[in-house]
Design a protein that fits this description.
With 668 residues, the chain is α+β, with helices and mostly antiparallel strands. The chain has 22 helices and 6 strands.
């Protein structure tokens, strides 16, 4: 039945498996398997550090250790899936982009989403597997892991007595060893404090040397001591009313002592783990939430009734009623202060003690009820957090895929360099958002829905944005674009760099370019007389009136056309002069922004307006310096062109007679 349905789907064009799908699936599949085991190992090592103290020095068997790591791995698999998908998709599409295979795919008319369709199906399957692990395997693994961990924590450690300090790893005894012989196993300078009968019947044993070994059933320790003394109080045998405490002292040459020591590993019963939200499936959590909330409501209602009938509300005897009774009895207006002052000192003290006791009892009752209510609410929130986490952790597989695959196609870098860095950054952002939201929701600072959906809601728009940009071949990580934007914001600019071209199709028209440079110098001279750049501009015109400096824009456009034409030369002098031309900013000296509303807002906000006004004045000074540099460079360029590219060499007098160049020479 299923095979027939699958064949029917494959017969449709939209579900037809193509060679491209198989090729991309192979690229992604191998990487996913490798990165999954790497991510699983990293997560297990990070998780292991939390319980390293429970494992060291316990003498656990390989079978127990294997169970520990097995259950840990099953619990961490849903967390390894998203990270493995992110890293493998980044590397896979980065390799395709770096080898120009992705360019060939797009050139064939296949969009990015079409190229990802086979992987989308695979990731959806992985998402379902992740949810299955959290729904079925995860709760069982958590119960077994917690039960195993509790048993490991309660297991007595192997006897490894250190030198020079007291060792309390044996129940009821503290042992001090001055020196150990590692080859023979002999202990020297032994001091033992035994507390089996309590502190009143404590025994102190001193011995010159001794040996220690475990019995075959690993239930006791046999300690053989040589040349020592035994001191012991025997208060338990004391006669009632006697002032003397029985005391025992024994000197021995050889003494054997049996100490209780359970060296076996015993699995502990842990039925309470089943009440933990992490040990339940989603259906069980939703079912238990109703019972938990009903119980919490009943407790809250009971606390409310107790508060009404308790010390805070007494409907039978109120203050107004008692004042009324006293007033009627004495036929005069009476208050409690006057009544209290008429009491005897002993009665006052007794009344004050009763009032303090009532207040302390009420405060203790409130504190207990508050802690109990917080525990009930915490249980409710933990179940909600775990229910939402099962869904969000599964959906993170899809979200990370739609971040990793488009990013790999955009950056076009394969291998384990840039993809690993980006994967770590994305996962750190997700980890911070997820854990911050979880902690805030757990502590009832944020609502559970907001805290648990914070990471998902932040990364989902990012995934949609990257997918849209990659599918439309939009530029996202163009370093030059962002560099240009930062330079504009800070008022920085790069130097002009014109180099000699290897192939020149058409030589420059030198004399025409010289003529244009002469015209540009004339325009610069007229502009300097009309616009006094050394004077401060009018703030009203700067921030509240529209307008650009069209003259500078025209001069800069003509200059760039001349530079573009002269850049086709092989003359090194011309190239050197071209690199002396500054890159002119045609807008920064007039107003801060091109949009009128931004200028108005900047002008109204005085501190920001002062900053941009001073910045604009600096740009006016820089423009004046740039125009002076352009004029001098134009003169040098015109003289070089006239002397080099005119048909006949010319003297200065002959140069002055040229109609196109006479103006610039006369103005010198």
């Amino acid at each position: 039945m299923l095979s027939a349905f699958f064949m029917y789907l494959c017969s449709l064009n939209m579900f037809r498996i193509k060679k491209l799908d198989i090729f991309i699936t192979k690229q992604f599949g191998l990487l996913f398997i490798g990165t999954f085991f790497i991510c699983q190992f990293v997560l297990m090592m990070q998780f292991l550090w939390r319980y390293v103290d429970e494992l060291i020095g316990k003498g656990l068997s390989l079978e127990v250790m294997a169970q520990f790591f097995w259950y840990m791995g099953l619990m961490l698999m849903p967390q390894a899936f998203p990270l493995a998908i992110l890293l493998s998709s980044l590397i896979a599409f980065g390799n395709l982009g770096e080898s120009s295979e992705l360019t060939a795919i797009k050139a064939a008319g296949i969009s990015m989403l079409q190229a990802m369709r086979s992987l989308i199906v695979i990731v959806i399957i992985v998402t379902g597997i992740s949810f299955y692990f959290q729904e079925v395997i995860g709760p069982k693994s958590f119960i077994s892991f917690r039960q195993l961990l509790i048993s490991m924590q309660q297991k007595n450690p192997e006897v490894e007595i250190p030198e020079g300090i007291f060792y309390d790893g044996i129940s009821g005894s503290n042992i001090y060893v001055q020196k150990k012989d590692m080859q023979t196993g002999v202990l020297y300078g032994i001091m033992i404090y035994r507390m089996n009968g309590g502190y009143e019947d404590a025994a102190v044993i001193l011995a010159d040397s001794g040996r220690m070994q475990t019995t075959e059933e690993k239930k006791h320790l046999l300690l053989t001591l040589y040349s020592g003394e035994w001191f012991e109080n025997m208060r338990s045998q004391d006669v009632a009313g006697s002032a003397n405490v029985p005391y025992r002292r024994e000197t021995f040459s050889t003494k054997r002592i049996v100490l209780d020591f359970d060296g076996d590993f015993n699995m502990q019963e842990a039925e309470w783990i089943a009440s933990d939200a992490r040990s339940k499936s989603l259906g069980k959590i939703l079912h238990d939430l109703d019972s938990i909330r009903e119980f919490n409501d009943s407790v809250g209602h009971q606390f409310y009734q107790e508060a009404k009938m308790g010390a805070f509300y007494r409907p039978s005897i109120s203050k107004a009623d008692s004042v009324k009774v006293v007033a009627e009895a004495k036929k005069e207006t009476t208050d409690f202060d006057s009544l209290f002052m008429k009491l005897s000192p002993e009665t006052k003290q007794r009344v004050m003690k009763m009032a303090v006791n009532d207040a302390q009892n009420a405060a203790s009752d409130l504190e207990f009820k508050g802690e109990y209510s917080n525990a009930l609410n915490s249980n409710d929130r933990s179940h909600m957090i775990e229910a939402i986490n099962k869904v969000t952790l599964s959906l993170s597989c899809l979200i990370f895929f739609f971040i990793g695959a488009p990013l790999g196609a955009i950056i076009r870098k394969g291998g384990l360099g840039v993809p690993v860095i980006i994967s770590v950054l994305v996962f750190i952002i997700y980890y911070i958002l997820e854990n911050t939201g979880m902690r805030m929701a757990r502590d009832d600072i944020w609502t559970v829905w907001f805290g648990k959906l914070l990471g998902t809601c932040v990364l989902t728009p990012i995934a949609i944005f990257f997918t849209y940009k990659a599918n439309n071949d939009s530029v996202v990580f163009n370093i030059d674009l962002y560099k240009h934007l930062v330079f504009n914001m800070l008022g920085l600019r790069s130097k002009r760099h014109v180099s000699m071209k290897e192939v020149i199709i058409e030589d420059p028209i030198y004399m025409a370019d010289a003529y244009h440079l002469v015209r540009i110098n004339k325009d610069i001279e007229e502009y300097g007389k009309e616009h006094e750049l050394l004077h401060l501009p009018n703030p009203i015109k700067v921030f509240f009136q529209p307008g650009d400096d069209q003259t500078i824009r025209r001069i800069n456009t003509e200059l760039e056309e001349v530079i573009e034409d002269l850049a086709n030369t092989k003359d090194r002098t011309v190239l050197s002069l071209l690199n002396q031309y500054p890159i002119v900013a045609t807008h920064a000296h007039t107003r801060p922004f091109r949009q009128k509303w931004l200028n108005v807002i900047t002008g109204l906000f005085l501190p920001l307006g002062i900053f941009f006004y001073i910045r604009m004045c600096r740009f006016r000074l820089r423009l004046r310096k740039d125009l002076h540099t352009i004029s001098q460079t134009n003169e040098q360029m015109v003289q070089h062109i006239a002397a080099t590219y005119h048909p006949t060499p010319m003297t200065l007098e002959e140069l002055e007679q040229m109609p196109l160049l006479a103006d610039i020479i006369n103005n010198k």
